[in-house]
Amino acid sequence: MKQEAETAAGAPTTLWARTRQLASQEILETALRLFTEQGYDQTSIAQIAREAGVSQRTLFRYFGTKEDLLGGNQDRFGQVLTDTISEQPAEADVWVALRAGVAAVLALHDSREQALERFRLLHSTASLRAGWLEKRLRFQEDLLPLIKARMDGGGTDPKARAVIATAFACLDAASMTWVENDGKGDIMDLYDECLAAVRG
User: Fold this and answer.
1) Per residue in 156-196, pLDDT tens?
2) pLDDT by residue (tens digit) across 82-95?
3) How many CA atoms lie less than 13 Å away from 150 in the CB half-sphere?
4) Contact 31, 121 (CB under 8 A)
5) Nearest CA-CA partner of 71 in 100, 43, 30, 108
């Protein structure tokens, strides 16, 4: 994921921030390459640090967990999702707001190629799938009040939960199909197809 280094809105980054951004990008690219070549579970933190030319201690200053080396900071993922949905116009319905959130999160990837490799690893590695499910449930809880507020009559917990779960299920279906098609097409088009199928 892109590592933002701006010190203030509109202000140029400092040399230190740019250096830190380049270092974190190098670590991420090294980790993704090793995960792709030999598998996520078979790749150690020590190996990533060694090949990236940093100490393990330095690596953990940039990334808190091994999972963060695959997809970037997961807290940032959740923050972008909730912020984007919160910023949608009041007249935007829940589906439009959720779509905007999904698109914003997907835009965090540096390139289509990196996004494809990350999704491929996510869908083919049991430990990553389990971790993603746990985080997804947390993200869904964080979104609950935002989605309830956009539903007619304030919505109810079951209805709002169903809407949020459907959006995440459509993202899963779209990303799995995108991986199966080797990255052909646009993942948001696939998301829209999945959502249209569910909504009938």
Assistant:
1) 789 999 999 999 999 999 999 999 999 999 999 999 999 99
2) 999 999 999 999 99
3) 23
4) no
5) 108
Q: Which of 172, 182, 158 is nearest to 102 (CA)?
A: 172
Task: Report the distance separating Cα 176 and Cα 182, nearest Å.
Answer: 10
Helix axes of 157-180 and 187-199: crossing angle, nearest 10 degrees: 130
Structure token pair of residue 54: 């940093």
**pLDDT tens digit sequence for 95-116:** 999 999 999 999 988 788 888 9
Tell me what pLDDT residue 109 has. 83
User: Considering the entire predicted model, what is its pTM?
Assistant: 0.79
Residue 60 CA to residue 70 CA, distance in Å, equals: 14
Amino acid of residue 5 = A
- Going from the N-terminus, what domains does the chain have, and what CATH number goes with each? 15-69 (1.10.10.60), 73-199 (1.10.357.10)
Return all residues near 8 (Cβ < 8 A) that are at least 6 apart.
none
Tokens matching residue 178: 């995108």
pLDDT score at 17: 74
User: Which residue type occupies 175?
Assistant: S
* Largest distance between two CA atoms of the chain: 56
Question: Given CA atoms 52, 58, 63, 68 in this order, what sign does their dihedral have?
Answer: positive
